[in-house]
Amino acid sequence: MADLLGSILNSMEKPPTVGDTESRRKAREQAARLKKMQEQEKRRKVEFRKQMEKEVCDFIQDSAQTKKKFLPMGKIERSILHDVVEVAGLTSFSFGDDEESRYVMIFKKEFAPSDEELEAYRKGEEWDPQKAGEKRKMKELAQKEAEEEALKGPLKVNPNTDYKDKYSHLIGKVAAKDAAHTLEANKAYGCVPVANKRDTRSIEEAMNEIRAKKRLKQSEDDGPGSSNS
């Protein structure tokens, strides 16, 4: 019986102390503040969404506007705006390098940005269709010229003058020097050029020379010391 009574008393919750009461009070206050903050955040999101819906609606109704740039906003706000834009059937993009400077731009479907326009916004530049058109034309012209050059084949280099003409004075000196070396070599080895062997006399001159030699020889034979006398 005593054991049963002891177990019952031990299972019963002990009366709260002063410290426990204070901790519970703080916990309840903290939970109440958290709930209040959550409700405030929820209402703020609802109000922000209503504001974005109004701005997007005004943008759609304004035929003069094709795009709209919003001020930088937080990640949650950007998410809400993107959702509103999608529901409205528009197109939206976020730009900006860091979180604090990121902003949203919305476009009407029929005026959706090109890749060149998006690239300009990503670089933080203003979009100028006229300059972009000129730049595109120059790029296409350069590409066309490159293709035409490729079709022509490898480039042929044609010098303005023949190298022999340009260096004729040097070539002449080298040729003369080589001829001099050849002549000296022929003399050293007893070689006579063919041109030197060629008889340049006429037939009549040659015959006269032969007759003169015969007469000289005959006169020598008929002289005082000849055995025929």
UniProtKB/TrEMBL annotation:
Q: Using the record's annotation, list all stretches that form the R3H domain.
A: 46-109
Q: Which PROSITE patterns match?
A: R3H
Compositionally biased intervals (Basic and acidic residues): 21-46
Stretch list, region Disordered: 1-46
Entries under CDD domains matching the protein: R3H_sperm-antigen (cd02636)
* Listed GO MF terms: nucleic acid binding
Alphabetical list of SMART domains matching this protein: R3H
Q: A Pfam family name for this chain?
A: R3H
Q: Which domain of life is it from?
A: Eukaryota
What's this protein's name? Sperm-associated antigen 7 homolog
Q: Which organism is it from?
A: Geotrypetes seraphini (Gaboon caecilian)
At the highest ranks, the source species' classification is: Eukaryota, Metazoa, Chordata, Craniata, Vertebrata
